[in-house]
């Protein structure tokens, strides 16, 4: 056997240098797990079973990630029903692992005593993109979901931002301790939903009672959200068959980056998921008084850049595009084209553009003024760097960004728009 002297071994520094040159993929997923857009739907099963099915949808956002880990909460008898890629609808490979495995393979903050559903993603998370997945599992927990006398109780600490609870068929809602929207689904079941604006879990509790009558499902899909022109609905009469959408489940969100107010301009991006079969474009109608420039778009699921064009007046009709408004010479629409959505599939878009709106974003006597309505349920406004907030007419969660700018997050769980008025001054 050939002997090897210590001098023939590479130095530790050299080995470390070589390791640093290797790509992250050589070690597996190494960055901390990050995610957004999570929402959980709790389908309450027969009260006697103490079971509820959880449909958890989430977007994994760690660049290059190959796996996503979903914790199995202590104190529950758990059954995993499956995992799916929301872009294609295909099933995904999954397994239950312990905390040590999760820490070694992409979730460094995983509890060592915990159990996790490890989902293998359909494709690595693209840079500045996301991987949208659905995980379905069934929990049995006698202390969380149970029957007491003639009432059914669901009492659970809910930590994520968006939650939907579907009552068993043939039950009425008798109490709910957190402000929630109540609707009826296509099966005649009551749906209780809410959005959590804070950073802490909600100690949520509702009670229900069996009834013989099935709630009537109204079919009017009209919206009460005012249009960009401010026309709104006729409020002099009751809406006889109005069916509000479940606000919590709406998937549009928008972020505004305000430029120097003297420019009257702001850069924005908004995310939107298209699920309708056959749809091949997204239409962004520019509000009257605004001008859009430098539009771009890509698919968040894959990072694919998309064709974008801005059309005005007659050019809109010439393309065969129909709008829910009269098309005039001043009408402007940004069109994002993509491959038609296939049955059972979806695509999530990120659309970026710069708006100039001297009527609603301006500088007045040294003060920044923003006066604009928000129709989405999640809206963020980032002030120009070097400006401090003096007024926000609507409640917001306020944070300082990494570069020192002030960010305002508006969570609107109501089915109407927020008229947001902001003022700021230069430091």
Could you explain how this protein is built, in words?
The protein is mainly β. The protein has two domains: 35-210, Immunoglobulin-like, CATH 2.60.40.1730; 250-426, tricorn interacting facor f3 domain (Immunoglobulin-like), CATH 2.60.40. It contains three helices and 28 strands. It has helices at residues 12-21, 99-104, 314-318, and strands spanning 35-44, 51-60, 67-72, 77-85, 94-98, 115-120, 131-140, 145-148, 151-158, 162-166, 171-176, 181-184, 190-195, 202-210, 253-258, 265-274, 281-285, 291-299, 307-312, 332-337, 347-356, 361-364, 367-374, 378-382, 387-392, 397-400, 406-411, 418-426. A seven-stranded mixed sheet has the order 4-7-2-1-10-13-12, with no helix packed on it. It has a seven-stranded mixed sheet with strand order 18-21-16-15-24-27-26, with no helix packed on it. β12 and β13 form a beta hairpin.
In helices, the fraction of residues equals under 10%
Tell me about the biggest sheet? Answer: 7 strands, mixed
* Radius of gyration, taken over Cα atoms and rounded to an integer in Å: 25 Å
Number of domains: 2
Assembly status? single chain
Given the helix and strand composition, which structural class is it? mainly beta
Strand content: 35-45%
Instruction: Provide a count of the helices.
Output: 3
Quick one: overall form?
globular
| CATH topology heading of the largest domain | Immunoglobulin-like
How far do the termini sit from each other?
Answer: 74 Å
Give the CATH class of the largest domain: Mainly Beta
Number of strands: 28
Low-confidence stretches: 1-28, 223-230
Mean pLDDT: 89
Tell me the name of the CATH homologous superfamily of the largest domain: tricorn interacting facor f3 domain
**Which architecture of the largest domain per CATH?**
Sandwich
The largest beta-sheet arranges its strands as 4-7-2-1-10-13-12
